[in-house]
Amino acid sequence: MEIKLDPSRDDLPLMANTSHILVKHYVLDLDVDFESHVFEGTIVLFCEDGNRFKKQTSSTKETYQLASNKACKFGTPEFCHLPMTNASTTFNVEYNDFIIYDKGEEDASDKEGNHDNQEQASGISSSKYCCDTQNHGREDFLLVLDCCDLSVLKVEEVDVAAVPGIEKFTRPSKPTIVSEELRNEIVHELVTLPADHWREQLDYFARCSQAPSCGELFFDTDTWSLQIRKTGAQTATDFPHAIRICYKTKPEGQSVTWTSDQSGRPCVYTMGSPINNRALFPCQEPPVAMSTWQATVRAAASFVVLMSGENSAKPTQLHEGCSSWHYYVTMPMPASTFAIAVGCWTEVKLETCSSNEPVIERPFPLSETDCRYVGVCGHMEYPCRFQNAAATTQKIIPHRVFAPGCLKEVCQETLLRLLAPCLSAAHSVLGTHPFSRLDVLIVPANFSSLGMASPHIIFLSQSTLTGRSHLCGTRLCHEIAHAWFGLAIGARDWTEEWLSEGFATHLEDVFWAEAQQLSPYEAQEQQELRACLRWHRLQDEMRNSPEEMQVLRPSKEKTGHMSDSGASVIKHGLSSEKPFMQVHYLKGYFLLRFLTKRLGHETYFSFLRKFVHKFHGQLILSQDFLQMLLENIPEEKRLGLSVENILQDWLESSGIPKVHSRCLL
């Protein structure tokens, strides 16, 4: 499948060749420099041959019960910072899945920040213009990563076989001679360890990330990608499966914002850029490339580092004036969900009682058969909270609030007091919290949204703190809902944004009514008022936006399709209009409201809990939700609904479906 990409259009390219090779784990080791506005350090990629991984997941997906569900703590490994060098290798490359029409683009390797070394390194000529004459370059396998506005300094293969104790991951029948095959076998054994070995796995990932190099690799960059090859490695199976990339970000990179907080102190954070994290670290951006990660970040001792991570990290003092923070994630997720914020944040605590104080709860109509599942899940193996009986009954997960010092008091009065009841309400509606903890950060005033959810961390605008608790409560409920829809359950195709935003908008009303402990009549009255306001906003947007931007499933039957390599294009992904549009929120909300009214509140939410249990930890398309919905409701309640007519009327057409307004309001 050949994809034509025109840079003059607003489509976003996903260049990574995920069909050939998948990154299963990232180890980041970075320094934050507020003077030059850059992150600098290394990232180590642990990969699996794409075909091999597909075979492995299909064979192990049948059944696997965790041997131990006991909660345990991970001892943070000791990290040493790898010194940066100015050696790199580059080469010119062609690849067939994408044809890029670029008007007059010249060779700009120096402008891209790549540093050529004309000397010999590791027996490989590092000259940019050097190419292996035996294989003519093009016959070698090419690892393509999504990358933008990064200065790549060096790429090298990691000698994982040199790590002490690593022989436990080799087969006794294997020869002791260190070879590419042996190193790749070690990586394979490491990335496929059972879920109850997660602490050991993270420890060995850390050790391997610090292993010596066994040779530099040729690389090149263009506008949207980093391409890496090794001479003589002609397939993904032969290609090194542990790669270390030395790099630094650029001040103008769009994945992070360098700014000042409301107290005037410097800070940096990922603000939900349309290009995601490719200007923060080289990665595989397509959602299908679900991975885990661990990261060590060093900053001046006055700064606090918050990140997507399962652990509530505490700083380790390295030397006077410098601290190190370490986070990790064991649940595989797309690299685009990674978030980081470094600043002089203050932790906000209640002065009179614990932030995790008990909350008076009213039971949400719920049957044991449709929620509290404990057993085998349908996702790839990881330490899943849905398989842990204690986690399924945890109504309020541990949580913290951070903000600039000047906003501490207002956060105590509003945000902090709302967190526990909102978390409890979410649990009463959907059941098991997918993530074990939550940080909430009030981000700087330049944040362009009201909120953004990432694994284990939510960014909120200071605007949510104004007025009474209603705005803060509803936005908090919206972002909490993303833990289920958007993170634990993600869209396989990013153009189906409604699967995240439509669900979160619909659920925020239900969560908020439950958090306020409203009576059924009061809840219905509040939700109908909000539906009326949204209806007028949606009508205004339909009148003032291009028809093609009103379609929730713009690729229609091609949704989820990729090129042979795994590369794809996100339609309108770089549109300047899209960030200001609410169609995915509002039209998706009204579709779910329509289905809830047709099926009945109890029937719909009973199904939704079953859906969450079946698809958490996985990626979905619209038809996955609609097919299961119609299969799980009685024939008499379907009332002529079908997957085909819902797709056609709601998702693949512009405007608002011709449904009587009483069916929507």
Automatic annotation (TrEMBL):
<dbReference type="GO" id="GO:0005730">
    <property type="term" value="C:nucleolus"/>
</dbReference>
<dbReference type="InterPro" id="IPR042097">
    <property type="entry name" value="Aminopeptidase_N-like_N_sf"/>
</dbReference>
<feature type="domain" description="Peptidase M1 membrane alanine aminopeptidase">
    <location>
        <begin position="433"/>
        <end position="650"/>
    </location>
</feature>
<dbReference type="InterPro" id="IPR027268">
    <property type="entry name" value="Peptidase_M4/M1_CTD_sf"/>
</dbReference>
<dbReference type="Pfam" id="PF01433">
    <property type="entry name" value="Peptidase_M1"/>
</dbReference>
<dbReference type="InterPro" id="IPR014782">
    <property type="entry name" value="Peptidase_M1_dom"/>
</dbReference>
<protein>
    <recommendedName>
        <fullName>Peptidase M1 membrane alanine aminopeptidase domain-containing protein</fullName>
    </recommendedName>
</protein>
<dbReference type="GO" id="GO:0070006">
    <property type="term" value="F:metalloaminopeptidase activity"/>
</dbReference>
<dbReference type="GO" id="GO:0008270">
    <property type="term" value="F:zinc ion binding"/>
</dbReference>
<dbReference type="InterPro" id="IPR033577">
    <property type="entry name" value="AOPep"/>
</dbReference>
